[in-house]
């Protein structure tokens, strides 16, 4: 069941000891944006702000950015979405949504699929130019165990806090490994293939995260949608009892994001390796800034060398690091390069 809190009310009614707790949602305040701060007119699925993804499939397009419009001074940033190309003829399989995936190791203590499963509460701040009923869904990795709920945006262009109570689920297969332990999907106007029944867990052949009552935000040209303060708590809370959003310092939040993605240098701050004079090869070992979720996909973004060289090559890739190599035309070459490492769920 979804509850609504309007305006900029501060939730200070409950004081819990959370000194040793780690937020289940990483970058819920939308402060980390390693990939950049804006993407214009996206017509296919993409990622921008860390740990969040936008699934786009249909005739519409969405512009995505990191924004400073927030419900109060507690939050520095929000994720802003704008309809760049409206889609008013949504086919059954079309999808417009943004998502978050919780790693299985992080959600294991909830006990999903077991007799001692605990309840959860999802909260977030939202603002949209389109009022009405919106859908949200939670799924297992196989997308066969689904919980669907609705929440209402009552006032256009007004920040509202939503509280979603999630009942226990004692059946189904739920990962507690480094795979997807829990998927969260916010609907922005998807097709009927994704319609489910509100306020209940259901076993389906595919993911559902909306109902037939939901608005199609994507059908409205230049419509806006902002979100921040995404928070998942173990237990059942209402708008008054939900614990305060747990902010992490910038270094901690960045390190947690880098478990899934990081940039090795950028266009203005490239890394460099020097040839050791071995068989005309430039070879160096590279340690990731933190242990990654899995061995990442390494992609070279740019390269510049003091001598002729081939594209960067990667070997021995693991969750801890890798080796970097480039062939050169001499034994004394300095190569500047940057890359991205991705191990997203």
Largest sheet properties:
7 strands, antiparallel
User: What's the overall geometry?
Assistant: globular
Strand content: 35-45%
Q: What's the helical proportion of residues?
A: under 10%
H-E string: EEEEEEEHEEEEEEEHEEEEEEE
Low-confidence region ranges: 5-19
Across the major sheet, the strand order is 1-11-8-14-6-5-2
What structural class do you assign from the helix and strand content?
mainly beta
Mean pLDDT: 90
| Total count of domains | 2
What is the rounded distance between the termini?
A: 27 Å
CATH fold name of the largest domain, please? Answer: Jelly Rolls
> Which superfamily, in CATH terms, is the homologous superfamily of the largest domain?
Galactose-binding domain-like
């Amino acid at each position: 069941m979804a509850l609504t809190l309007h305006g900029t009310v501060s939730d200070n009614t409950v004081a819990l000891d959370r000194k040793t707790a780690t937020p289940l949602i990483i970058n819920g305040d939308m402060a980390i944006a390693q990939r950049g701060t804006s993407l214009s007119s996206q017509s296919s699925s993409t990622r921008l702000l860390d740990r969040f993804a936008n699934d786009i499939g249909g005739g519409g397009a969405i512009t995505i950015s990191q924004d400073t419009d927030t419900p109060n001074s507690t939050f520095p940033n929000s994720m802003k979405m704008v309809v760049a190309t409206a889609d008013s003829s949504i086919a059954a399989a079309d999808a417009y949504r943004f998502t978050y995936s919780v790693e299985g190791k992080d959600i294991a203590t909830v006990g999903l699929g077991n007799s001692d499963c605990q309840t959860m509460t999802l909260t977030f701040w939202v603002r949209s130019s389109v009022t009405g009923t919106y859908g949200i869904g939670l799924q297992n990795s196989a997308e066969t165990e689904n919980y669907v709920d609705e929440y209402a945006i009552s006032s256009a262009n007004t920040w509202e806090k939503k509280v979603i109570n999630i009942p226990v689920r004692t059946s189904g297969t739920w990962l507690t490994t480094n795979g997807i332990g829990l998927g969260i999907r916010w609907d922005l106007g998807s097709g009927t293939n994704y319609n489910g029944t509100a306020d209940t867990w259901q076993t389906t052949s595919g993911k559902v995260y909306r109902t037939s009552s939901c608005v199609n935000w994507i059908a409205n040209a230049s419509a806006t949608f902002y979100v921040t303060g995404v928070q998942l708590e173990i237990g059942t809370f209402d708008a008054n009892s939900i614990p305060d959003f747990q902010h992490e310092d910038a270094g901690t939040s960045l390190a947690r994001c880098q478990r899934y993605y990081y940039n090795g240098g950028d266009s203005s701050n490239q890394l460099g390796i020097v040839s050791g004079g071995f068989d005309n090869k430039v070879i160096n070992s590279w340690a990731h800034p933190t242990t990654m979720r899995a061995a990442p996909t390494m992609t070279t973004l740019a390269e510049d060398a003091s001598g002729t060289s081939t594209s960067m090559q990667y070997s021995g890739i693991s969750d801890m690091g890798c080796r970097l190599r480039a062939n050169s035309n001499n034994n004394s070459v300095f190569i500047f390069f940057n890359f991205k490492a991705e191990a997203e769920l």
